[in-house]
């Protein structure tokens, strides 16, 4: 078997540009590396060396290995730890299982039924607001809206009435901090603003948790306060605050990214808007149980997640020796799952660059259990997967029942960025008009 040093890597002077290339366009960077070195290669990002390998088999191997050998927390640590310490993704093994089980109470059926009603109200307000026909720069707009929803569902707060911009700015600074190239809190760096953003969130959320202990509500904070594990364990205030900050971040940015990407696709190929409209019209009564009938909407949303997964790549740390693509990889190596390239693997997807929701009708996604992985896999698979599907269906039904959408600029192929999540690099201006 080949050894670690047999894995190809650029010369040192090119490695110095890897982080910049990754941050500005991760898929392009990985593509270039693959063309140059083949499916397995090494690269250096944020000062750490990574072994990259691609495809559903690799994803399966990484996701299915126990946390004794493949660690998620240590994988994410260089990026997330200063800003989102103790979030679920930063935990492994028994500690992760205990915390995830307690958190799961916030995503069970009674909680989802409650979120359903809140999302429906939010979606109807959203539709009423965009129906004015004014020009909207969609990504910043929906980010604000999904943050508004997250504040309602998770914290029971009214975004516009209470913390408002302060929390929104603190969030975006904290998320942007994860990508700061300077990793010490020097004044006026992204890193420094990120650390300050986190402090603001900790202070605001700690007060809130204390209030909810006295006066429970039907939000995620209250579910987390009352939830107990089988052995009776419960979360402390600090643990709830850490989980909330992480979950809010995981929830609102990913949802904003995926809906923006869907609008991007259906304004380029308006035929799919008709399909969304027909699907919306086909439901006479709308309830939590009838969501599964919005099958075409689900396929369009899934195809959006395939072609532009919000997270293009997720990191892992090998804590034991592992064999990967015929190489003996020693413990201590950093690696990851490349979602973007896996979703474009021609062995599994026909015409992968084309937006074609019908591939889910044809069950093209069923050839390999790890070929479609926008929500990850294994024990860390996204806890909000069903919630985000529900959010998307409710919002899309509400919008396309009444409206169509068009771009207001002639150029439909706009520049996009993929870090920290997929989003347009330039304004994506749209207008919603009555059908
Ligand atoms: C389209 C929307 C979303 C996408 C594409 C997405 C994607 C992902 C991915 C890929 C992971 C796994 C990361 C890894 O294994 O390294 C993950 C984990 C997670 N997601 Fe999501 N997510 C979405 C929405 C949400 C929502 C709405 C919530 C919260 C309500 C959420 C909360 C979380 C949490 C807490 C984890 C960590 C789970 C764990 O470590 O056990 N996500 N998500």
Care to describe what's here?
With 435 residues, the chain is mostly helical. The chain has one domain: Cytochrome P450 (Cytochrome p450). It has 16 helices and 12 strands. The strands form 5 sheets. The protein has a 3-stranded antiparallel β-sheet with strand order 3-5-8. A 3-stranded antiparallel β-sheet has the order 4-12-9. Strand 1 and strand 2 form a beta hairpin. The model has no long low-confidence stretch (mean pLDDT 91). Protoporphyrin IX containing FE binds next to helix 12 and helix 16.
Question: What can be said about this structure in brief?
Answer:
The protein has helices at 12-15, 18-24, 26-37, 56-64, 73-80, 93-103, 109-130, 138-155, 165-177, 190-214, 220-226, 237-268, 271-282, 295-307, 339-342, 385-402; strands at 41-45, 48-52, 70-71, 136-137, 313-318, 322-324, 327-329, 334-338, 403-407, 416-417, 423-424, 429-434. By secondary structure, it is mainly alpha-helical.
């Amino acid at each position: 078997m080949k050894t670690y040093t047999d894995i190809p890597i650029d010369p040192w002077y090119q490695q110095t540009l890897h982080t910049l290339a990754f941050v500005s366009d991760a898929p392009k960077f990985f593509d270039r590396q693959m063309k140059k070195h083949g499916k397995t290669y090494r690269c250096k990002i944020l000062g750490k060396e990574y072994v990259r390998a691609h495809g559903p088999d690799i994803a399966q191997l990484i996701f299915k290995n126990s946390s004794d050998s493949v660690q998620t927390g240590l994988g994410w640590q260089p990026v997330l730890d200063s800003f989102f310490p103790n979030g679920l993704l930063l935990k492994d093994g028994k500690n992760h299982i205990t915390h995830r089980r307690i958190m799961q109470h916030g995503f069970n059926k009674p909680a989802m039924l409650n979120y359903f009603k809140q999302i429906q109200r939010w979606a109807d307000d959203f539709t009423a607001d965009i129906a004015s026909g004014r020009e909207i720069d969609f990504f910043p707009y929906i980010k604000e809206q999904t943050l508004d929803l997250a504040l309602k569902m998770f914290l029971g707060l009214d975004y516009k009435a209470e913390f408002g911009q302060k929390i929104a700015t603190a969030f975006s600074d904290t998320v942007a901090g994860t990508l700061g190239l300077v990793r010490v809190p020097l004044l006026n760096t992204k890193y420094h603003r990120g650390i300050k953003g986190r402090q603001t969130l900790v202070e605001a959320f700690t007060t809130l948790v204390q209030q909810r202990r006295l006066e429970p509500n039907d939000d995620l904070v209250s579910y987390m306060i009352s939830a107990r594990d089988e052995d009776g364990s419960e979360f402390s205030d600090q643990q709830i605050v850490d989980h909330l900050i992480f979950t809010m971040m995981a929830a609102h940015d990913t949802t904003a990214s995926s809906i923006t990407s869907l609008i991007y696709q259906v304004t380029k190929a308006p035929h799919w808007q008709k399909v969304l409209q027909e699907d919306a019209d086909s439901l006479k009564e709308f309830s939590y149980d009838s969501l599964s009938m919005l099958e075409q909407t689900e396929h369009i949303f899934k195809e959006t997640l395939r072609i532009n997964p919000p997270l293009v790549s997720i990191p892992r740390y090998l804590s034991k020796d592992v064999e990967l693509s015929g190489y003996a990889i020693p413990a201590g190596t950093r690696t990851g799952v490349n979602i973007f390239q896996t979703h474009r693997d021609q062995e599994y997807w026909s015409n992968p660059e084309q937006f074609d929701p019908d591939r889910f009708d044809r069950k093209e996604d069923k050839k390999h259990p790890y070929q479609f992985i926008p929500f990850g896999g294994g024990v860390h698979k996204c806890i909000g997967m069903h919630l985000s599907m529900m959010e998307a269906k409710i919002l899309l039904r509400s919008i396309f029942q009444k409206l169509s959408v068009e771009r207001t600029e002639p150029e439909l192929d706009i520049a996009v960025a993929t870090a920290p999540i997929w989003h347009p690099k330039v304004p994506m201006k749209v207008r919603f008009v009555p059908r």
